[in-house]
Amino acid sequence: MIEKSYAKVNIFLKITGTKVYEGRVLHTFNSRFMVVENLYDTIEFKPKNCDSFTIEGVKGVDLKDNIIFKAYKVLNEYVGDLDILNFFYNHKVVVKKNIPFGAGLGGGSSNAATFMKMVHKVCNLKISIDELANLGAKVGADVPFFIYNYSSANVSGFGEIIENFNEEPLNLEIYTPQINSNTALVYSSFRDNFLKEATPNSGASLMLNNSYDILMKKIESESLNDLYKAALLIYPELKNYQKDGWFFSGSGSSFFRIKE
What we know:
By secondary structure, the chain is α+β, with helices and mostly antiparallel strands. The chain has helices at residues 67-79, 82-89, 107-122, 129-139, 143-148, 183-193, 211-216, 221-224, 227-234, and strands spanning 2-21, 24-47, 55-56, 91-96, 152-156, 161-164, 172-175, 247-248, 255-258. It has two domains: 2-164, 2-Layer Sandwich (Ribosomal Protein S5, domain 2); 172-258, Alpha-Beta Plaits (2-Layer Sandwich), CATH 3.30.70. Helix content is 32%, strand content 27%. Strands 1, 2, 3, 4, 5 and 6 form a six-stranded mixed sheet that branches. A three-stranded antiparallel sheet has the order 7-9-8. α1 (67-79) packs across α4 (129-139), α3 (107-122) runs antiparallel to α4 (129-139) and α6 (183-193) packs across α9 (227-234). The two termini are 36 Å apart.
């Protein structure tokens, strides 16, 4: 079994505050997520006798830190279904990466969500997609969006509130400089320097407009994505890659635009 695991961009991302979730302080936001249809990894369940859960294709990441392994553990703990354990004694997970790491494109979250949906199917799990999305929220803030398989959606809360946004997909061009942006550091930078500027309704008006219109207004990245200024404090070299008509995605380091 093999499935595509798509990238996404944040058309806009406005921080609205913080919220405690399972003992963690998480940032809340209003955002528009859009799938990038021409950029994706692949996830494959390949037959192989394995002594333990096995992932291939993700170099430089310990198993315990791999987001797919975290998704596997969350599923196991919630479902308690021996079919999952037995399946991965007889299959390995093979990931073919095309989405860059630390790029603000949701590659890891997409991988985790795709993995969870594949397990849901092959193991015939008796849980709903909503339950699967709730489990995904325990793995990562962007995971629920990918669980629902929407092309475009308004995303709020700490990533657990997903509302399908019906609009034409955009032909997007992505540019990712050789900067591996650390999401935790970028959010920490925002919290230390800009959190006082956040308001509960930040970005609410943007959620009413389609993505094409938002981008064609050519608003500066600093105004569309609250994390851009925070990222610049850690990676000032990002400024060298900011060009007119290009927008910053997520916690970086990618820029995107509508392809002409």
